[in-house]
Design goal:
Helix content is 1%, strand content 46%. The chain has 614 residues and is mostly beta strands.
Amino acid sequence: MFNQKIIVMKTHRNKSTFFYQVKRRRSLFSRTVFYLTMFSLFSLLPFLAQAQIFQAVSTSLPGVVSGDAAWGDYDNDGDLDFIITGEHEPWVCITSLFKNEGNNNFVEINAGFVGVTLSSVTWGDFDNDNDLDVLLTGNANGFEDITKIYRNDGNDQFVDINADIAPLSTGTASWGDYDNDGDQDVIITGNSNSQDITKIYRNDDGLFTETGIQLPGYWFSTVSWIDFDNDCDQDFVLCGRTFSGHASHLFRNDQNDIFTEVETNFLDLSSGAISCADFNSDGKTDVLLSGFFGEYNGESDTRIYKNEGDGIFTDIDAGILQIGSPSANWGDYDGDGDMDFVLPGTANMMGFHFELYRNEGGNNFVLTEDSLSSFGDAVVWGDYDNDGDLDLLCTGMDFWTGPQCTILRNEGGFSANTKPSPPTNLSAIVIGNTVALGWHSAVDAQTPSTGLTYNIYAGTASEATNIMSPTANVKTGKRLVPQSGNVCQDTSWVINDLAPGTYYWSVQAIDNNFEGSEFASEASFTIISQTVNEINTAEISVFPNPARDELFIIGANDFQIYHIQMLNSTGLLEFEDFHFDSNLPLKLNGFSKGVYFIRIIDPSGISTHKIIIK
């Protein structure tokens, strides 16, 4: 089995003569890595003459290929640091952490990470102490696949927690709270000791346990969490390949460790990228897919799918160049409030591109004249210099000098982004050991209110995050990571499995520049010990869910339901019936679309169900 990486320089609209050098080596897993250098002096002249929005910052960072990169303020000092992975030179892999000292000065920190290639790296906070931990996968110098979680203990110290997670390469790992208990679980997909896998691991107080959820396994695969149906839980998109072909899937989270595949028209592809964001600010998260398909990955494409609601995604036919990209990413680089995107990659394995598309509204994206760089294994947005616009961190093979790591500073002269206002009208509905949190939307000078995402913290003391971490400064709202909020675009969220006690929480808004508002004034709620039994939800059937016109509530064994309540996501009681006849449907005429909670009360106990009205 051979894994190949080809980097080709695309020269715009000019005939080119290419000279190239190929170096091949074989690892323990019989993989082939191609270092391909191509150049043409005459075709580069117009490239060099173009005005550049993004300017390379002079640094002496170690170059890498076949790796990953991530911005994150790991030391909580208010500016973005970063971590990179990949092959620095043949048989030498690195995972390096760089501290931002200001004035374009980055200092490498000896954090003791395992060096990997064919890798992924991402920041998260698995222990809810509101500092950034590291989730790392890849192949360690050609000898073994690894998956590591490193706990941030402060003072530049990271500790391997020896998480019992399958080793992985040629794939992706991602944090996400799939079971709504407030801590970050992990999904992985890729090759694990010659097996193609996709697995979800549940985080129980820092102990990661495989859930056993059955999912299709892939390699050269990627996965991204998304709440596509705005029902207060994490769904996901998965792309990858097996020896029989390529595939793309959307899985809906139906709770209780059940994920159901939703039929879509997504292009089947692998070796690419998934980026989820609401590009048209209509309150529904859209999907950008980029990658390769066909025999030997010979064809490539990038598609943008508009979320129409009800699980329907429409290809907007954006007229994007047919590029397969390992790191396409959304971000509002020009500060106008809508999501643009960067697209580095190759077109049908025949030319290299590094393109920036500006969102003009109305499903229209315009290719800028900027050829940002000549490489792009990993390209990620972040405002490292705190000047109010998004910059880029890029790694990959440069056609002149080999493996590179470069920071591109945004010099477009755009107006500095301003942060949103805080959300308002916080509310909490306590249902047994579950709470449903709600708030009113925030506003922003650039990003439309419907395009904002939201970010929650919750804890057992004021400003504590030990139940749910925001990866943000709770006093100022300053984000530790340049990404959307931890509860997506929802204006309500559910936290399960809470012990009796008083809890404190708040929420902030996040705009398309990944700037966080201040947190709203802190609120609290109390979970009390139950004086009545919780009815086993298996004894009560509430269907269909999602529902449109009517809802049935049926008790097992002629169970007599005589009192039901229906509350919306902000805690408002919208319907109550003390003598509900379970033989008749509950009519939903007049109810708005959204998330609701049905509370079923009987002398033997209380049962609560979350439903969605479409």
